[in-house]
Design goal:
mainly alpha; 4 helices
Length: about 80
Amino acid sequence: MRIIIPPYVKPFLWSYDTDRLDDERDKKRIVTNVLNLGTKKATDWLFSVFKKEDIRNALMEPLRGEWNKKSLNLWSLIFNVHQK
């Protein structure tokens, strides 16, 4: 299903057509970009839309070359995820 991305989240998905993102197919992309680059308002939105388990899964198997190492470490600590 297509997900409605609010205007304050769109800048963190700048290279994607946000009107065509799908909440299942693009889940890992959305989680990665918002946690890696987003503001508190954007991350609050993310937490209200995606399940904790979906976010943990994106952290456990991060998209290669996409994460800022500090961001990945921070969110992994917050969500108690250990990198493989």
